[in-house]
Amino acid sequence: MFADFLRRLVEPGPAPLPDTDARLALTALLVRVARSDETYDAKERARIDRIVAARYGMSPLEAGRLREDAEALEGEAPDTVRFTRAIKDAVDYDHRIGVIEALWQVVLADGVREAEEDALLRLVANLLGVSDVDSALARQRAEKAL
User: Fold this and answer.
1) Where is the Co-chaperone DjlA N-terminal domain (predicted)?
2) Which of 23, 37, 70, 142 is most buried per CB count within 10 Å?
3) Is the whole model's pTM more than 0.70, yes or no?
4) Where in the sequence is the domain holding 69, given as residue range(s)?
C-alpha cells in the first residue's frame, strides 16, 4: 500500500516531503516508538491522536485516521535507522525537534519510562540530527505537558 511512498522516502537525496506525506511519516515514527516496548495500548494510541490533532489542527476523527494509516506504514517501513534518516533528509530541523518532543509524550503516556524506550529515543534523536541539548529540552517540555 505504501511501497511507492517508502521508495521515495528512502531513495538517495529525497526531496522535501509534501506536508501530508511528512505528517504520515512523522506519525509513523510516533507509532514505532510507542510499539518499541512490545506494548501498544489504548493510552498510547490516544496520546498519538491528541498529539497529531493538536500539531496539525485536526479533528479527533481525522487524527485517528492518520494514526491508522501511520500504523500500516510503520509496519511496512524499513528499519528504524533508514526510516529515521530518510525523515531527517526530508523534514526541517525545527519540525524534527517537535517530533522528539512528541515522541517523548508518547513514551511517557503510560506513566512508565522503559530503558528500551530511552535508548530508542536517544538513537532517533541522533539519527534525526537533533542535538542532545535540544532533545533534553524537548523531553522536559513533554514531561511538563503531562
Assistant:
1) 23-140
2) 70
3) yes
4) 18-145
